[in-house]
Amino acid sequence: MTKTMEYIIFTLKSALFDFSRNKGRTFLTSLGILIGVLAVVLLTAAGLGLRKYIQQQFELLGSNLVTVLPGNLDEGLSSGGPAFGRINFSEEDFQKLKRVRIIKNVVPLYSRSFTVSGGNDSKYSELYASTADIFVTFNQKAEYGKLFTNRDVEKRSKIVVIGPELGKKLFGSAKKALGQSVKIEKQSFKVIGITKSKGGGLTSQDLDNAVYMPYKTAYVFNTEKTIMAFYIQARTEAEIPEMKRQAEKIMLENFDDDEFSIVEQKDLLSTINSIFSIVNTVLVAIAAISLLVGGIGIMNIMYVTVTERIKEIGIRRALGARKFDILSQFLVESIILSLFGGLAGLLLAYIIVFFVQPLFPAYIDTFSVVLALGVSSGIGIIFGVFPAKKAADLSPIDAIRYE
Amino acid sequence: MTPIVRIEHVEKTYELDDNVKFTALNNVSLTLHKGEFSALIGPSGSGKSTLMHIIGLLDKPTTGKIFINEKDTAHLSDNEISTLRNEYVGFVFQQFNLINKLTVVENIILPTVYARKKLAYDPIKKAHEIMEQFGILEKARSYPNRISGGQQQRVAIARSLIMEPSLILADEPTGNLDTKTGNDIIQLLKKLNEKEKITVLIVTHEHDVAEKTRRKIHIVDGEIVSS
Ligand SMILES: Nc1ncnc2c1ncn2[C@@H]1O[C@H](COP(=O)(O)OP(=O)(O)OP(=O)(O)O)[C@@H](O)[C@H]1O
Ligand SMILES: [Mg+2]
Q: Where do transmembrane segments lie in this chain (chain A) (predicted)?
């Protein structure tokens, strides 16, 4: 073994030994770094996940889709939320839109949450009342049975199509739900179909728990026969602007231009993205603060650690240790502590993200890992070595006498 | 007689409060020769430890010069001084100054960790030889705060010997010991002086101890009165 190797091994050994003799302090320092890393990595993962979640939600819908909503979305954003619910659309608007050539498809939507019971169980679910075209718009297929048709809409058939999760909750399995009846507000409806599972993610879970009903059947709940929104679909992307213009003309016959909005998916997406970039900035700011707080914790503990070892530094210097020897000892110790805390924090973050992922598409990106590890171990190392340097600069006898 | 350490007109003042100064050493000049076995004797507070720290290059004088082997140490870099402390001087502190988180044997070999020259012997083996000679072999894996004062004193001396220094400076090596153990320690240092030709300087305020040496240096109020 060479002299250098022996020296390195001795330094490592004494560092590890020091940790085992000071478990509390080692734990606290590592905990500071752990929390800093965990906070930064998790918060950025949440921010990124949020953005992905919203994109996923839009991807569930069909293409070339434009939404007609009540309220002024532009004004709404600047004054704290779209003014939904001020007006409602009617059957008349639906028929007018249907007559527009350029519109390939119009889907009216009335939706509300209800307690749906059946079998021996019940569940709070979202009801989507529409025409048969909603299944095209929502990209839904039947797993068991069939979807309802526009004839069912006209006949006001007392039927529903339900999501597989809801079927499972009420009747034990999606398949068993077929042909059963469910109760909504004391009214009975026959289950004629169960949709295919969308699997994974919060949005698709919602759809897997949904109840679809012909919108005219839903008049039993919707006595004013209102329509909350229309999805209108163009044949090609190129026709979207013209379709929007014509739809707007129709809507202006009954409403003022600030009473409704016609938005493309990509407008909505960019609006929502801009909201979430603010959310993201806030998250990053919080992460930065926790990194700072963690850093101050590390700083304090490191400072105390070195200060209480000034006597030891003096003794080592008296026995012939050079300043560099002292610094490298403290550097090694700080690096081990920081790495230990940082990697533990990272591991914990990965575990948390792993368990959250089925519900929420959070993910960890390399930049946040590098940033978190870099900053926290940087602080650990600087504040481990800087006081040690000050102690090494004292005369050995002053260091030994230091209290 | 060849000088090993020579100090010239050394003064050490401590800045107590804002403007109050305390002179611990006043114009001290002294030469230690190779192979000498001497005692530095004086009352408590006379400046014995202070002088010893300066001779051992642990502290710097306010003014004055220190020559090691006739070489002025004023021009040496911190690394060179560290090497001198490591190779040239073996220090036994008044308060032992062992590192409590290291075992006895780890304390003894600690100076060899910082050695820059290639050692002609295996430090662990040599540590065991010294421990055996000092009767502390069974304490090799104990921690300093779990052994007796006399045993700690021996560990401190063993540590000062591990690098085979030319000069041993022992600050009150018998101060914490009963008369019998104290005598043993002095005999031990005397044997080192006679057999290994190591220069030894013992600091003490006990005349009994000083009587056992060949040269007595008296210090009173920071001044050498006879040597
Ligand atoms: N760091 C310091 N600051 C101020 N005064 C000091 C300092 N170190 C020592 N002194 C003073 O210098 C004088 C000499 O101290 P020193 O420790 O050398 O005495 P000593 O002869 O070794 O005494 P003892 O036999 O009690 O160990 C004392 O009066 C002491 O109070
Ligand atoms: Mg003293």
A: 27-50, 282-306, 327-356, 362-386
Q: Which two tokens stand for residue A63?
A: 């293409």
Ligand 1 atom closest to B47 (CA): 18
Q: Are A76 and A205 in contact (CB under 8 A)?
A: no
Q: For residue B19, what is the domain's CATH number?
A: 3.40.50.300
CA of B15 to the centre of ligand 1 (A): 13
pLDDT tens string, chain A, 403 residues long: the values are: 566 776 777 777 767 767 776 777 778 777 878 888 888 888 888 888 877 777 766 666 666 788 898 887 655 444 444 445 567 899 999 999 999 889 988 999 998 999 999 888 899 999 999 999 888 877 788 999 999 999 999 999 999 999 999 999 999 898 999 999 999 998 999 999 999 987 655 555 578 889 999 999 999 999 889 999 999 988 887 888 899 999 999 999 888 888 888 888 777 777 777 777 788 788 878 877 877 777 777 778 777 777 778 899 999 999 999 998 888 888 887 888 788 888 888 999 999 989 888 777 888 888 888 888 888 778 778 877 888 888 888 889 999 988 7
Return contacts of A91-100, CB within 8 angstroms, 24+ apart.
Answer: A91/A225, A91/A227, A92/A254, A93/A227, A93/A230, A93/A250, A93/A251, A93/A254, A94/A227, A94/A230, A96/A250, A96/A253, A97/A68, A97/A230, A97/A232, A97/A247, A97/A250, A100/A243, A100/A246, A100/A247, A100/A250
ipTM over the 0.85 cut-off: yes
Contacts of A230 (CB under 8 A, 6+ apart): A67, A68, A89, A93, A94, A97, A106, A107, A108, A109
Structural domain boundaries in chain A = 3-55+274-401, 106-233
Q: Which amino acid is located at A193 in the chain?
A: G
Number of domains in chain B: 1
C-alpha distance from B227 to closest chain A C-alpha (Å): 26
Q: Mind giving me the DSSP string for A176-242? A: HHTT-EEEETTEEEEEEEEEPP--SSHHHHHHHT-EEEETTGGGGT-TT--B-EEEEEESSGGGHHH
Asked, for residue B222, whether it belongs to a domain, the answer is no
In a domain, B45, yes or no: yes
> CB–CB of B91 and A318 under 8 A?
yes
Contact A90, A255 (CB under 8 A): no
Residue B139 lies in a domain: yes
Is the CB of B204 inside a 6 Å radius of any atom of ligand 1? no
Q: Which tokens in the block code for residue A19? A: 């940790």
| The token pair that represents A134 in the structure block | 């909603």
In a domain, B227, yes or no: no
Cα torsion A54, A56, A59, A60 to 10°: value is -100
* Contact criterion met (CB < 8 Å) for B102 and A7: no
Instruction: Look up the domain containing B144 and give its range.
Output: 3-217
Token readout for A48 is 């990124």
Nearest CA to ligand 1 atom 17: B49
